[in-house]
User: What shape does this take?
Amino acid sequence: MPKAPIQKMFDSIADRYDFLNHTLSLFRDVAWRKHSVRLLKNRAPKDCKLLDLCGGTGDFSKTYSKELGVPQLSVVGDFSYAMLSKVNAKSKELISVQLDATKTPFIDQSFDVILNAFGMRNLLDTAQGLEEVQRLLKPKGYFLTLEFFSPIDVFSRFFYKILAPLFIPFLGSIFSKKKEAYEYLVRSVLQFLSVKEYQDLAERLNFQCVSIKKMDMGIAYAVLLQKLEVKS
Ligand SMILES: C[S@@+](CC[C@H](N)C(=O)[O-])C[C@H]1O[C@@H](n2cnc3c(N)ncnc32)[C@H](O)[C@@H]1O
Assistant: This one.
């Protein structure tokens, strides 16, 4: 799907987004975010400058603050104004910025930690998104991705190819009347990279893979990357 329709799609489901996220995942999304940010424990600096890219309604950065302490600066960046409009009701310390994740307005090396939950899959060009993260991170900064990657093992293939296409668009249409958005969700997982392909791409773009956490038999993964220092 080209950029403008994706933006419109997220604008159209923003009101029911959190509710459907929790319902369709049986609240596993809450646990996935929590387990993911814990990978940054004892790694992220206490006075961290944090960017939640494709941050939507701000749940990932909110989980970060709850688990690891409130960062010095916490920015939620997203291109959907409707999604961002929910951020402030959740937490006053979060600053919302409407932006395109592949071309952000920030100067080089602005952030210690960048988060991205379920956003990389939506970018038109994953490499461009990773390159922008690379530009925005300070040396040795961390990039944490939580994502539904293209399934590679038996259970996750069964889940995404057989189960998910049956129940996700159906429930999505009942609760949000936006069946296409939830058909897109399943399709975008199958069309995305596998976790191994994502790791390989990140390593080619000067990241080191610190940790990969498989959750719920491969339905979701957390990938923690660290920006390598450029050798002179
Ligand atoms: C599935 S939602 C995830 C939201 C949130 N991170 C979470 O954990 O629930 C994906 C988000 O990515 C945003 N998005 C997709 N492509 C984007 C882009 N190129 N630039 C900025 N935001 C984008 C959408 O507007 C949407 O809010």
